[in-house]
Amino acid sequence: MKSSTQRARKATRNKAVVLTGPTAVGKTALTESLFSNGFEIINADSVQIYRGLDIGSAKPDRDLQQRIPHHLIDIRDPWEAYSSGDFVKDALSAMEGIWERGNIPLVTGGTMYYIKHLVYGPPQTPEADMSIRAEVIEECHAKGSEWAYSYLASIDPISAGRINRNDIYRITRAIEVYRATGRPLSSFPLSTSPRKDILFALIGLSRDRSVLSRRIEQRAVQMFDEGLYDEVRALIDSGAERSWPGMEGIGYREFFDAAEDGESSVHDICDSIIRDSKRYAKRQITFLSSMKEFSIFSPEDEDGVRSFLLDNGIRV
């Protein structure tokens, strides 16, 4: 006779929920409301993976992390690179453990290319050539990030359009692929349908643009009230540099940009964070709309989300 644990494992095996949407849309609040029991969270935010980057990344507080187990948070130091391929590998590994415990993985965050590569599978790009990578990194460091982005735009304008001009890790990776293969990174196709080995319930959250805009503004002000300035000052005092991958995140890079441009007030930096966050939200919304398999809900429509999950064999 099967134990209750064995039955739970069988019932949850290969099921997973993905919950995404633009910054400040309300993913965390919905997570707390619906997914507190029987779920474990896999973080899909490219800044929350870094230790010490708490306030600027809107990292979930310790209380929530204790109530709902979290994975892929605080797994890298800010100077370490972390790719979408790393995320997929780590997320799949975490899922195995979650299923073994009879729980359901909830993949949530706003880094859309993490989510797309997990749900659809990564593009079939070549393995890293470490000698070429070293050469590209050295060249980009010597000539500067503006040169690197302009060079990428000349050899692979499609990838340049997808990558933030300050994301030096993804820029150098795209240049590396071109140097290694003679083909632009954008020529390596993604799958157009979700993978078959995991039964994903795909949820996207959306709000009226004006409401989202106000929420972004309120979040930025709240971050400063919670001590963002002191958090960044502590990072800089410990040796943080603009070139560190973790410092590319919104909420951090604006401080370095302000220092490079001359003294700026906290108010000016806050305005820059709001501006960059709104631009990022616009890109997130466009990215989400391209993934047609996602069902879109208002963050307040808990009954709709609950019904959708039930239709996918998941009870909350």
Structure, described:
Helices cover about 50% and strands about 10% of the residues. It has about 325 residues and is an alpha/beta fold. The chain has two domains: about 240 residues, 3-Layer(aba) Sandwich (Rossmann fold); about 60 residues, Histone, subunit A (Orthogonal Bundle), CATH 1.10.20. A six-stranded parallel β-sheet has the order 3-2-4-1-5-6, sandwiched between helices. The two termini are about 25 Å apart.
Q: What is this structure, in a nutshell?
A:
52% of the residues lie in helices and 9% in strands.
Task: Provide the CATH topology of the largest domain.
Answer: Rossmann fold
Distance between the termini: 27 Å
CATH architecture of the largest domain: 3-Layer(aba) Sandwich
CATH class descriptor of the largest domain: Alpha Beta
Overall average pLDDT = 92
* SSE ordering: HEHEHEHEHHHHHEHHHHEH
Strand order of the largest sheet: 3-2-4-1-5-6
Q: How many discrete domains?
A: 2
DSSP helical segment count: 14
> What shape does the CA trace take?
globular
Number of strands: 6
Low-confidence segments: none
For the sheet with most strands, the description reads:
6 strands, parallel
Properties at a glance:
single chain, 316 residues, alpha/beta, Rossmann fold, Histone, subunit A, 2 domains, 6-stranded parallel beta sheet, 6 strands, globular
Topology, element by element:
Layout: H1 4-12, E1 15-20, H2 27-34, E2 39-43, H3 62-67, E3 70-71, H4 84-100, E4 104-108, H5 112-120, H6 130-143, H7 145-155, H8 157-162, H9 168-181, E5 199-205, H10 209-225, H11 228-237, H12 253-261, H13 266-290, E6 295-297, H14 302-311
Parallel strand pairs: 1-4, 1-5, 2-3, 2-4, 5-6
